[in-house]
Amino acid sequence: MKSITDNPNNGQGNFDDMINDLIKNFIEKLLKGELTEFLNYDKYDSAGKNSGNSRNGNYSRNFQTKYGVIEKLEVPRDRNNDFQTALFEPYKRRDDWLEQTVIQMYARGLSTRDIANLIEQMYGQKYSATSVSNLTDIAVKEIEQWKNRPLEKRYSVLFIDALSIKIRREHVGNESAYIIIGINEEGYREILDFYIGVTESAALWEEVLMNLKSRGVEQVLLGVMDGLPGLTDSFLKVYPKADVQRCVVHKVRNTLHKVKKKHTDEIVTDLKKIYKAPSIEFAEQALNDFSSKWDKLYPRLAQSWFEDKDELFTFYKYPDSIRKSIYTTNWIERANKEIRKRLKTMNSLPNEKAAEKILYLKILDYNSKWSERRLKGFLAARDKLIQLFEERY
User: What's the burial of 66, exposed, middle or buried (CB within 10 Å: 0-12/13-18/19+)?
Assistant: First the structure.
């Protein structure tokens, strides 16, 4: 007897047919089992007499799967027409593999037009860019539920940051996507929420944070943020018992913008002595040394660091094992950079809904990856963080 692979021309076709037949038989058995459970008696069982309902033959339908089209799938029905299988919705002609594939391609940067052309090339099925966009609207339906989901009561750290995105309204313009990331006591991070606003402002951040609190985030130890005017006050209005950590790396960058190029490397070395010191005492001494060394050339630089010192040195109050994770928003910016790369493929987004779809799909991807990765140092700091929660709340 010849193997189905013996014929190089027909082997793949025979194999696909065999897979289709197996899937068809499997689905039909499942459907029969579902109907038996629905009616609560086996076929030909006397318990079905005078039960008020009974089997009523089958109807045929074609059903498309990722393995091909299953023709003449036999779907059982009952006499009262009450039975509905859980395998697919009424009148649905395929499983949801196509929708999921489209959503994944869209999330990874293909345009709706590219996806439509790709589907037609692969499956011979005509899809317009509008049809593809409608499929990705599955994400839109989920966004509202996601943005209203209950959140944990405690987060050791909240990182708040915004990135610029281009949206076409009457004209193409830069708008801000507000993103909040939480790290719980165990050291697992999660993007808690996002919001699209015309411009980044402290007042809008306060509104976003209030919404977060209404969804259950009541206790926070530390907020990490950049130097947006008014942002510290807005954060502390919502979480008055929390500390604020100003992003040290942002501060370093702003400092370097104000110095001559020939001094850049030396100033970077001196600044590292400040924020990489083993303790706050050594950091303060390094800042004094920096001031003494550079005051004549750049009198405003050291003064600026002294003015912001309380928020720049907050991380020294926390366990050494997590300090590298909390003195900067840099690793969040790396995530934002990936989101920007995805947005760049579209130049500008046609509306806010399109922007939300892309952000949401990327966020789900991040949260899935992060749910299995504890941030370094948080396990060692856990007892101290719990103690800080108990002292403050």
Answer: exposed
Give residue 11's pLDDT: 47
Taking each helix axis as running N to C, give the angle between helix 97-107 and helix 352-370, from 0 to 180 degrees, rounded to the nearest 10.
90
CA-based Rg of the chain, rounded to a whole angstrom?
29
> Which parts of the chain sit beneath pLDDT 50?
1-12
Question: Contact at 8 Å (CB) between 147 and 115?
Answer: no
**How far apart are alpha carbons 259 and 305 in whole angstroms?**
14
Residue type, position 328, single letter: T
Task: Tell me, yes or no, if the pTM score tops 0.70.
Answer: no
Which of 219, 287, 274 has its CA nearest to residue 248? Answer: 274
Residues 156 and 117 both lie in one domain: no
Q: What is the 3-state secondary structure (H, E, C) of 278-337?
A: CCHHHHHHHHHHHHHHHCCCCHHHHHHHHHCHHHHCHHHHCCHHHHHHHCCCHHHHHHHH
Helix, strand, coil in percent for the chain, rounding step 5: 55, 20, 30
Number of domains in the chain: 3
Q: Which domain holds residue 52?
A: 11-94
286 shares a domain with 196: yes
pLDDT in tens, 109-118: 566 676 676 6
Determine the pLDDT at residue 346.
Answer: 53
